[in-house]
Amino acid sequence: MSTSSSLWNRFQQYFVRYPKLGFSIDISRMAFEDGFIDSMAPSIEKAFAAMKELEAGAIANPDEGRMVGHYWLRDSSLAPTELRAEIDGTLDSTLKFAEDVHSGAIKAPNGQKFTRVLVVGIGGSALGPQLVAQAITPANPPLAIDFFDNTDPDGMDRIVEQIGAELATTVTLVISKSGGTKETRNGMLEAAAAYKAQGLDFAKHAVAVTGVGSELDKYAIAQGWMTRFPMWDWVGGRTSVMSAVGTIAAALQGVDVRRFLAGAAAMDAETRTRPAKENAAMLLALMWYSAGKGKGLKDMVVLPYKDRLVLFSKYLQQLVMESLGKEHDLDGKIVNQGIAVYGNKGSTDQHAYVQQLRDGVNNFFVTFIEVAKARDTAGFEVEPGFTSGDYLQGFLRGTRKALAGSGRESVTLTIPEVSAFTLGLLIGLFERTVSFYATLVNVNAYHQPGVEAGKKAATDFLKQMASVIGALPAGGATAEALAAQVGIDAEDAWQMLSHLAANGRAKVTLGATPAADSFAKV
Ligand SMILES: O=P(O)(O)OC[C@H]1O[C@H](O)[C@H](O)[C@@H](O)[C@@H]1O
Asked: What Enzyme Commission number(s) appear in the record (predicted)?
């Protein structure tokens, strides 16, 4: 990768485009040797074979004994026969629901049309709808959208305050595949309380998207919610944006959902059968492998040069890190796999962390996303002969060159514009890349056992907090003494007592050290 003519040749060799989709991938600035792809042939074959089985309904998630069916959501004809009607029917009914909300056939209890949607969900049950809302909704969508995607009460208070009296015409989607996620349960209860405070009946504004028979599903039935849509165990949260999880909010916001699905289906079709050297998903998986030596040694920095795609790095962060970040491989060997993903957008990031990318520790590769069309409206020249869009391209190309000049690797993906179709296409591309890469490094991409450890520790912490509150004396005691009394760790006790004190639920007299602080009942 030295002279400009050899770079031009390398570009020709490693540039693949799908003209029908307006999509291209350029891996010429990755530092693999020319024989690399051929040398990976046996692994590539294995990955293609595993994908074929997965798409045919194999138990591709062995730990949970589940099929992996997100690829069927955009082409139900590939799904096992018994699932097809349910996939199509659910899609139709989510779109019909949105249509009825728009037309006023489904109204708010006050007789007016719904004007806003509040999504309560977290992780895979929020990131997809958030990305869609940011990237492909009209500037002034038919319904404005807000999210409760955390159990931060202050965050929720701010949203409720912003919505104000419009809560009367707000439909709330509570989204949880498992139906038991605590943050989402809390968000739902907080939302219900906010409606109640305005004299509104939450049930008449509430819609559930969840697994049939889940805690949430039962609750929604018992409370008489507006309606419910199903989630299936064969769709993982992080790949659920094309199920009801993503389609309802998208449709309510005026997104052409069928085009969104068609984009993913089109990328699936391109990358399902093409041989490795012209297969964008396989090439990307091979680049991840080459950059990180199959061990995730290099982070992936996602740099879309387009404001609308600012959440794409966050979306990929969950998709990639929750799928690939695994302690064990499929043979039970300890491997501690994964690829760290971060990023924001260009050229904004050039004024922040790109300094380190150019000059600092070389522990990453960049994925540039270039959008060919600069804007929808007529061009405007910021100086004679140049538009803002020319600058955006200049900064992308300049950064790619500057990085390559100091031995930093990058992949560049180009799409014609940001639309429902091209967002679907990008999501489809990365989903298949994750599936391929998982086989290359022999991990199960479809479970997330590590997430459970933090959840269990949080549950224990809350149980212990209850016993500490019960033991708080009127006269004051140290954290250590209270911890010994209820049989818990002294630091945990101090942390929860400090939290209680900060929120007016305990009194604290600070000592010289945490051990000398004294806590009492209020
Ligand atoms: O949709 P839910 O069941 O509420 O799950 C929400 C999220 O939380 C879990 O902890 C998982 O790690 C995520 O993959 C999932 O998307």
From this structure: 5.3.1.9
Fold assignment, 23-56+261-447: Rossmann fold (3.40.50)
237 lines ligand 1 (CB under 6 A): yes
Cα(131) to ligand 1 centroid in Å equals 16
Extents of the domains making up the chain: 23-56+261-447, 70-255, 450-521
The CATH H-level (homologous superfamily) assignment of domain 70-255 is: Glucose-6-phosphate isomerase like protein; domain 1 (3.40.50.10490)
Ligand 1 pocket, residue 125 CB under 6 Å: yes
Q: What is the CATH number of domain 450-521?
A: 1.10.10.10
Three-state DSSP state, 245: helix
* Alpha-carbon dihedral sign for residues 346, 351, 357, 359: positive
Query: 128: Cβ below 6 Å to ligand 1?
Result: no
Q: Whose CA is nearest to atom 12 of ligand 1?
A: 451
Q: Is the CB of 122 under 6 A from ligand 1?
A: yes
Token output for 19 = 């003209």
Q: Specify the residue for token string 């109204």.
A: 107
Say if the ipTM goes beyond 0.95. yes
Q: Ligand 1 mean position to 176 CA, how many Å?
A: 7
Q: What is the pLDDT along the chain (522 residues), one digit of tens a residue?
A: 457 779 999 999 999 999 999 999 999 999 999 999 999 999 999 999 999 999 999 999 999 999 999 999 999 999 999 999 999 999 999 999 999 999 999 999 999 999 999 999 999 999 999 999 999 999 999 999 999 999 999 999 999 999 999 999 999 999 999 999 999 999 999 999 999 999 999 999 999 999 999 999 999 999 999 999 999 999 999 999 999 999 999 999 999 999 999 999 999 999 999 999 999 999 999 999 999 999 999 999 999 999 999 999 999 999 999 999 999 999 999 999 999 999 999 999 989 999 999 999 999 999 999 999 999 988 799 999 999 999 999 999 999 999 999 999 999 999 999 999 999 999 999 999 999 999 999 999 999 999 888 888 999 999 999 999 999 999 999 999 999 999 999 999 999 999 999 999 999 999 999 999 999 999
Comparing 23-56+261-447 with 450-521, is the CATH topology the same? Answer: no
Whether ligand 1 lies within 6 angstroms of the CB of 123 is answered as yes
Q: Which atom of ligand 1 is nearest to the CA of 125?
A: 1
Q: Which atom of ligand 1 is nearest to the CA of 448?
A: 12
Q: What are the catalytic residues?
A: 322, 351, 455
pTM recorded for the entire structure: 0.96
Q: How far is CA 102 from the centre of its chain?
A: 27
Three-state SS for 339-377 is CCEEECCCCHHHHCCHHHHHHCCCCEEEEEEEECCCCCC
